[in-house]
């Protein structure tokens, strides 16, 4: 059933990514816009930093220039995003970028000490399947670092955000797969942070 759901979401994404491809082709962010995005990512990192352990890290739904991995030390850093090949920026040479869906990762089980999903869970076609995959590729001693925008109630936001979560919904979903270590929400920015470990 989950696989069928994924195939459907994949088809939806293929159509959607045509638009994204087109927009990325034409969109060059100004230095100021890039700085604004990077400042947000640095803000996520401030929350995660005390809990980061290990040397191998994966960023799922990384985007290109803004991947959080550029601010983290590690021996192996991998960033995945299905539109990576269309991103018109110079990508960081210390990071291995791969085109991949969160729902169908190609890594062996137990590959990473830390998996990051920042501002991306509500973009995925099938967040539940993505979390199953995250759990699979995370080491037994590994940790997940998730940041997602939350809302008072679910609503149809737009094509790029097939899901809108409330704090309760996203907490229930994440704690189904991971044991929370630290949970934090910032009401003024609608941001919800979850740091978890394997159950
Ligand atoms: C708002 S961007 C977040 C980028 C970056 N993580 C950040 O914190 O700024 C959401 C990203 O999720 C990616 N995405 C959408 N669906 C995905 C999927 N099924 N699997 C992996 N990434 C996906 C998009 O291509 C996009 O780059």
What is the strand and helix layout of this fold?
Layout: H1 2-26, H2 31-48, E1 56-60, E2 76-80, E3 96-98, E4 112-118, H3 127-137, E5 138-149, H4 167-177, E6 178-186, E7 191-198
Parallel strand pairs: 1-2, 1-4, 2-3, 4-5
Antiparallel strand pairs: 5-7, 6-7
Bound molecules: S-adenosylmethionine (SAM).
S-adenosylmethionine (SAM) binds next to helix 2.
Task: Describe the structure in your own words.
The protein is built from four helices and seven strands, in the order H-H-E-E-E-E-H-E-H-E-E. With 199 residues, it is of the alpha/beta class. It has a single domain, classed as Vaccinia Virus protein VP39 (Rossmann fold, 3-Layer(aba) Sandwich), CATH 3.40.50. The longest helix is centred in the N-terminal third of the chain and has 25 residues, at 2-26. The protein is globular, with a radius of gyration of 16 Å. The mean pLDDT is 88. S-adenosylmethionine binds next to helix 2. Residues 13, 37, 41, 60-63, 66, 81-83, 101-103, 118-120, 123-125 line the site of S-adenosylmethionine (SAM).
CATH fold group = Rossmann fold
The strands making up the biggest β-sheet line up spatially as: 3-2-1-4-5-7-6
Count of strand segments: 7
Instruction: Give the oligomer, counting copies of the same chain as homo and different chains as hetero.
Output: single chain
SS class:
alpha/beta
| Ligands bound, unique | S-adenosylmethionine
Shape label:
globular
Strand content: 15-25%
The CATH architecture:
3-Layer(aba) Sandwich
Mean pLDDT: 88
Percentage of residues in helical conformation = 25-40%
Low-pLDDT segments: none
Number of helices: 4
């Amino acid at each position: 059933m989950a696989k069928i759901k994924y195939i459907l979401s994949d088809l939806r994404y293929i159509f959607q990514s045509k638009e994204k491809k087109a927009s990325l082709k034409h969109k060059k962010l100004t230095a100021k816009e890039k700085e604004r995005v990077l400042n947000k990512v640095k803000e996520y990192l401030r929350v995660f930093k005390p809990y980061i352990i290990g040397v191998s890290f994966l960023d799922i739904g990384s985007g290109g220039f803004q991947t959080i991995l550029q601010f983290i030390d590690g021996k192996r850093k991998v960033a995945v995003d299905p539109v990576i090949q269309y991103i018109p920026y110079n990508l960081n040479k210390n990071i291995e970028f791969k085109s991949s869906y969160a729902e169908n990762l190609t890594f062996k089980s137990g590959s990473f000490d830390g998996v990051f999903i920042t501002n991306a869970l509500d973009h995925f076609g099938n967040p539940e399947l993505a979390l199953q995959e995250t759990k699979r590729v995370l080491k037994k001693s590994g940790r997940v670092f998730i940041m997602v925008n939350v809302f008072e109630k679910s609503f149809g936001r737009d094509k790029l955000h097939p899901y809108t979560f409330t704090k309760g919904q996203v907490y229930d979903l994440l704690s189904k797969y991971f044991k929370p270590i630290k949970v934090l929400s910032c009401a003024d920015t609608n941001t919800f942070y979850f740091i978890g470990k394997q159950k």
